[in-house]
Structures are given as structure tokens and as C-alpha cells.
Amino acid sequence: MINSKYFFKGILCAKEFDSPAIALGLSFLAIGALLKNLGFTIQESIFSTFLTYALPGSLVMAESILIGVSLLNLFFAVWLVNARLYPMTVSLMPLLKHQSQPRWKYYLSCHFVAVSSWLILKNNYKDIEKKYRVDFWIGIGTATWLIAIFSTILGYYSADFLNREMMIGLAIINPIYFTCTMIGVMKSIQLNVSIILGAILGPLFYLISPDWCILIGGFIAGTVAFVIGEKNVS
Amino acid sequence: MSANIVLIIVITSLATYISRFLGAFTSEIIDENTKIYRWFNYLAYSTLAALISRMIIFPAGALSDSNYLSRFIVVLLAIIIFKLTRNNLVYPTLFSAIIMFLLSSFTI
User: Fold this and answer.
1) Which residues of B touch A87 (CB under 8 A)?
2) Is the pLDDT of residue B108 over 60?
3) Domain boundaries, chain B
4) If you measure CA to CA, which chain B residue comes closest to A105?
């Protein structure tokens, strides 16, 4: 089934000092408090993080409840904001593929694809034998997923003690963590172009289409970076 | 649990899982040494960068209560701290929360 040695190795990756788990935990703490303020019960809050496990999607869900959109609109709004998970999964799964591993592991563990777990795997996969990378990935995913769930519970129960300023302080953690991570990985011209151009085009296209800005901005920036990369190789 | 909220959660999780599932499905025919894999890798980084900058410039949730200048100062300080601490991720993350809290407390 799952190789326990690599599974626990993956779990332990989340506890390192500069692991994305810290930012993830604090961000879901804010989500837990937000869900309580929206009138969710503790069971519903846990159920939400358990099934969704994507921060921007949870924020869109919360906003949609506040303004009262239809279920169809909610579906498309969440799908668009979480569409980044598609290229992230495509860029992750080939690193884990091995013919000896069953397909269900990949389809089940794709639920763990989120920025934090994705970054942990990208930083550590080279040290793991390819045959066991999917077990290692399931360990990383389980750890980050459980952190998100427990932080949601903690946030839910601490909501009464968090004022508006504290919520703002918690809300900046996630974007700051990922901004620094992105700066940290900018080590080639292609990655520099994809990240800088993506960061410029995303908000720029927001002015034209708030729903599609991430996809269009990301698509153009990533494609330009790819073309530059291929030209460099040739 | 309220049936309406459960339905909202199920719709949200389905809309999220679709991208993950399609990604896993597509990757069955993609090898890590191919051009298309490299393209998807850059797309992943660029869409992530687009999302992060959108979250900072046009935020949703609690962050939308803060002003542009506060967010700009916090991002700038966080990057400086990140570089000064030789790319350590914990210090800028924690400091950013504290600075943002202080700036929000003293500005409207």
C-alpha cells in the first residue's frame, strides 16, 4: 500500500523551521475565525477545510456567502480562482510517476495539491528514490492537510479573541510567505520571467476581468517564459 | 449542519477538485523531460505569481480592510528582511503579521 518510511519522511518535512506549514497554519487560523463569523458551525468549518483545502477558494466561498451569489456562480468563481491547481498538478505528478505504483494513489493524493505542499515537494523530491516519491508526497500532503484542519479548529475557537487588526495581520501572512518563496526560487531567466511577468499581468488583467485575470496573466507569462527558455536551449 | 451550507461546501470542493483531478489525468501522458512539462512548470509558477500579486493588490476578506500603502510597506519590509536573513522564510512571515497589525492599528 503506502511505504511507511517515506510516508513519515514526508510528514516530517512539514515540521522544519522554515516550512510553509507555519504560513499555512496561521492562514487557516484566519479562515477558521472567518467561518465562525459567517455563522458556520464547528463541524461545517472542519468539513469545509477537509474537503476544499485551498485558501483562495475558501475566501471566495466566504465572499459569495456574504453577497449571496447563486450556486452556479459560486462554482465558476471558485473554479476560476483555483484553476492554478491544474498546471501545478501537471507540473508535480510526472515527478512522482512510477510504473510500480497504483493509479489510485495519484488521483487520491491530488487532493493535497496546494501551494505549501507543492513547494515542500519541489524542494525535496530529488532526495527521494522515484519509486517512493508518491508515498513521500502523500506524507507531505497529509501533514499540511492536517495542519490546515487543526488550524481551522483553533481559529474557530479563537475568533472571539481576534479583533479586526489581528485578522488583517493574519491575512497578510500567506501572500508574504509566498512572495518570499517566489523570490527565493528565481534562479533562472525563465523562472524570473514567469514570476515577474505573472505578478505584473495578474493585477493588470484584474482591471479587465477580475474572474479570468489569474488564468490569462499566468498563461501569457508562463508561455513567454517557456519561449525564452526554449530559445536559450536552442 | 445546515443543508444550505453543506451544499455550498460541496460545490466549493467540487470546483476545487476538478482542477486537481484534470491535472492528474493530463499528467498521465506527460513525461518530466518533455517540452510540454517545462511549459506547464512555468505556467504553474506564473499563475501562482499572478494569484499572489492579485491577493496583495486587490485583496479579498480581512485584508481588503487595509490600505494600499500599508500593504506596500509590509511587502517591501518583508522582502528586505528575507534578503537580510539569507532567504529565511520564517522571519519575514512573522514580522509581516506584526507590522501589518501595528499599521492597521494606527491607520484607518
Assistant:
1) 23, 40-41, 43-44, 47
2) no
3) 1-30, 31-61, 66-108
4) B24
Q: Looking at the structure, do residues A151 and A193 belong to the same domain, yes or no?
A: no
ipTM for the assembly:
0.88
For residue B50, the SS3 value is: helix
Q: Which of A47, A113, A206 has the CB atom closest to B9's CB atom?
A: A47
Nearest to A164 among B6, B20, B65 (CB): B65
Q: Helix A189-206 vs helix B35-57: angle between axes, to the nearest 10 degrees?
A: 50
* Same domain assignment for residues A76 and A192: no
Range of the domain at A121: 4-178
Co-location of A24 and A138 in the same domain? yes
**pLDDT reported for residue B71:** 95
Examine the domain organization and report whether A111 and A18 are in the same domain: yes
Q: Which of B94, B59, B85, B99 is nearest to A22 (CA)?
A: B94
How many structural domains does chain A have? Answer: 2
Residues A124-167 have pLDDT tens digits of 899 999 999 999 999 999 999 999 999 999 999 998 898 989 99
* Residue whose C-alpha is closest to residue B38's, from A222, A214, A147, A137: A222
Single-letter amino acid, residue B3: A
| Whether A151 contacts A25, CB under 8 Å | yes
Distance from CA of A156 to the nearest CA of B (A): 15
Is the pLDDT at A203 greater than 90? The verdict is: yes
Residue A197, pLDDT score: 96
